[in-house]
Amino acid sequence: MFSDHDLTHRFEAESVGRALALVGERWTLLILRETFFGVQRYGEFARNLAIPRPTLSSRLRTLVDAGLLDRVKYASDPDRHEYRLTQAGRDLFPAIVALMRWGDTYLAGPEGPPILLRHNDCGQIDDDPHLACGHCGHEITVDNVTPEPGPGFRQAATS
């Protein structure tokens, strides 16, 4: 176990840094947001995001190469493609929801959040989505978790 202030184990091949290296750029996160809300076609991404087309092409290629999106030919036009989330891409949804929740709390205007999430299972608007422990079901917060070395932990070399 590490002391409260000894968090050196976080910095050696840690997952947040690796994930941010892949998806931490603004346009990449916005493309992923669009895919979570049903956008699949290049023209829709370009229109919805007002993103420069070379940037969009580059980011889509990166997401496909990383296995977060699949590039699939249109049934009606085999010369064109759409982009569909893979399971790895779908698994990023909680991260996007967490960013959205934070933005709604601290950056939304006086009229409130621009997008609400309706939970299809119960039909209700979920205005407080949160992370929960897979074992006990209680909410996970910054105050009730402790970082510990995992199986991929590598002890830093001492000189």
Question: Can you describe this structure?
Answer:
The protein has 159 residues and is mainly α. Helix content is 37%, strand content 6%. The chain contains 6 helices and 2 strands, in the order H-H-H-H-E-E-H-H. It has helices at 15-23, 26-36, 42-49, 53-65, 87-90, 93-106, and strands spanning 69-73, 81-85. The mean pLDDT is 87.
Task: Tell me the layout of helices and strands.
Blueprint: H1 15-23, H2 26-36, H3 42-49, H4 53-65, E1 69-73, E2 81-85, H5 87-90, H6 93-106
Shape, principal axes of CA atoms: globular
Mean pLDDT: 87
Structural class: mainly alpha
How large is the share of residues in beta strands? 5-15%
Low-confidence stretches: none
SSE run? HHHHEEHH
| Helix proportion | 25-40%
- End-to-end distance: 22 Å
Radius of gyration from the alpha-carbon trace, in angstroms: 19 Å
Which strand order spans the largest sheet, edge to edge or round the barrel?
1-2
Number of strands: 2
Largest sheet: 2 strands, antiparallel
Total helices: the number is 6
Quick take:
The chain is 37% helix and 6% strand. With 159 residues, the protein is mainly α.
Which terms summarize this structure?
about 160 residues, mainly alpha
